[in-house]
Specification:
Blueprint lengths: L16 H12 L2 H14 L6 E5 L5 H10 L4 E6 L2 H13 L5 E4 L12 E7 L8 H10 L1 E20 L3 H13 L6 H11 L2 E13 L2 H7 L2 H10 L5 H16 L4 E13 L1
Parallel strand pairs: 1-2, 1-4, 2-3, 4-5
Antiparallel strand pairs: 5-7, 6-7
Helix pairs in contact: 5-7
């Protein structure tokens, strides 16, 4: 059983790699994420002829937008550690007549010379690395002087789900956060940016709120999370069943609520 909390770090080794591609397709269909992505493209301040790198390009949709920004005279490159993701990205690019570059590559060891790109972007990827500080330094290494770095990440320490008994909720929320290599990366980004030598740092929070249980199940992978938490002994199966009933009852009354705060951080390399 593979959770979206930890599975993105090793998509090709999971039992159903295609489900991770479908998950990204879902994310791209949600207005909240569309708004955040559009702002991140704007923050990159790309011009025709620029070179831009997408760290963890996933299904390639974001990279296509970046390729449009730099035009045919520019260069847009996407890297990912998953061949499944790169295959999906290439198919999406071909379908739209887009021709960005793709490379199977680890974000902590970028296969590019120093100062290669005018801008570098990453969206919900650094959370899947063990050390955000190392990741940012590597990103800055391949960024040109006066170049821009834009990172968008959640902080799973802000994850809320209502209703539910406080202790049970807290235990499951912590279990989810702890299963992500850098689950609290959102609050770490400012320090990582400064440590990497970036300046003119701008931090903007965005909070996703959900009042539809069915959608929350899909975005937060609740079924898998609850199952794994029970299997690991974090909560009992009876506690999960009781909680499920509470959530369903609240949803039927239009009272279900869940939220998660993300941080869009932009910085300049001297």
């Amino acid at each position: 059983m593979d959770s979206f909390a930890s599975g993105f770090a090793q998509v090709d080794k999971t039992s159903d790699a295609g489900s991770f591609v479908q998950y990204l397709d879902l994310i791209h269909s949600i207005p909240f994420f569309q708004e955040c992505k559009a702002q991140s493209y704007q923050n990159l301040a790309l011009s025709p002829g620029d070179s831009v790198l997408e760290i963890g390009c996933g299904n390639g949709i974001d990279l296509q937008k970046l390729a449009e920004c730099v035009g045919t005279s520019g260069t847009a490159v996407g890297i990912d550690i998953s061949s499944t993701m790169l295959s999906a990205a290439r198919k999406n690019a071909e379908a739209l007549g887009c021709s960005p570059g793709f490379l199977l590559c680890d974000g902590l060891h970028l296969a590019f010379p120093d100062a290669t790109f005018h801008a570098v972007r990453s969206d919900r990827v650094i959370q899947h690395t063990c050390d955000p500080f190392v990741a940012l330094k590597e990103i800055v290494r391949v960024t040109r002087p006066s170049g821009t770095v834009v990172i968008f990440e959640p902080d799973w320490g802000t994850y809320t789900l209502w209703p539910g008994e406080r202790e049970i909720c807290r235990n499951v929320m912590n279990f989810w956060c702890d299963n992500i290599p850098s689950g609290q990366v959102g609050r770490v980004l400012y320090a990582a940016f400064t440590d990497a030598g970036l300046e003119s740092i701008d931090v903007h929070p965005y909070t996703l709120t959900l009042t539809d249980l069915a959608l929350a199940r899909r975005i937060f992978d609740l079924d898998t999370t609850f199952s794994l938490a029970a299997k690991k002994g974090i909560v009992s199966q009876s506690e999960i069943e009781r909680w499920e009933n509470e959530l369903s009852n609240a949803d039927s009354k239009g009272q279900f609520f869940s939220s998660l705060t993300f941080f869009l951080v932009t910085g300049k390399k001297l």
